[in-house]
Design a protein that fits this description.
This protein is an alpha+beta fold. Strands 4, 5, 6, 7, 8, 9 and 10 form a 7-stranded mixed beta sheet that branches. β4 and β5 form a beta hairpin.
């Protein structure tokens, strides 16, 4: 049974929530990083919504990288829109020549951190914001990670590699010290998949 079939079987019938009709569409911006599309939409009740802006990003991949000692590798880097240094998972955009999200994860982990892994597992795909973003964010779990080289020297992406116990990373996430929403979701799902998500032991019950 496909995931969509499972979802349909447990949720109410969605036939009363039909998609909007798109009467016209045009791109206002088109570069290597992003396309901005303006749609003229009409709802099933005949309400016009125009322009409705859609951001067409490439798909992304996030890597939850674990070593044999139950440590996780995270990265810190400056994020300009918010003007902060953010603690995140390694990852990035999936390139057109990447054969799969796992291949993209392998490349991104190597380029950003110099790490490699002996075991890779695809976890899931999430929608960063299905209201305005057309892309998906793929989650890949890497096990038995170790340093195998040097990261790519990219002057536009200065990254600090941080290795910490998995439990410490969970604690930081629960304390709001990791602020990248998609990365928190990826961390939760991948650690659950690996049998490593145990937040109950970190909750203060005093």
């Amino acid at each position: 049974m496909a995931p969509t079939d499972t979802l349909t079987s447990i949720l109410p019938d969605a036939t009363d929530l039909p998609p909007w009709q798109v009467k016209s569409s045009k791109h206002l911006l088109h570069d290597r990083w992003l396309k901005v599309r303006a749609d003229a939409c009409v709802t099933a009740e005949g309400v016009e919504i125009a322009p409705y802006y859609v951001l067409e990003y490439p798909d992304w991949v996030q890597v939850v990288a674990l070593d044999a000692e139950d440590n996780i590798y995270l990265v810190q880097q400056y994020r300009h829109a918010l003007g902060v240094v953010s603690l995140e998972l390694p990852g990035g955009a999936i390139d057109a020549n990447d054969a799969s999200p796992v291949e993209a994860a392998t490349r991104e982990l190597r380029e950003e951190t110099g790490l490699s892994a002996s075991e890779w597992e695809y976890v899931s795909a999430l929608a960063p914001n299905p209201a305005t973003h057309s892309n998906r964010s793929h989650i890949v779990l890497a096990r038995n990670v170790e340093i195998s080289g040097k990261p790519v020297d990219d002057p536009t992406e200065r990254i600090r590699l941080i290795r910490m116990p998995i439990r410490q990373a969970i604690k930081l996430a629960l304390e709001g010290k990791m602020i990248q929403t998609i990365h928190i979701a990826a961390l939760t799902l991948a650690l659950h998949k690996a049998g490593k998500w145990d937040a109950s032991a970190l909750v203060d019950r005093s």
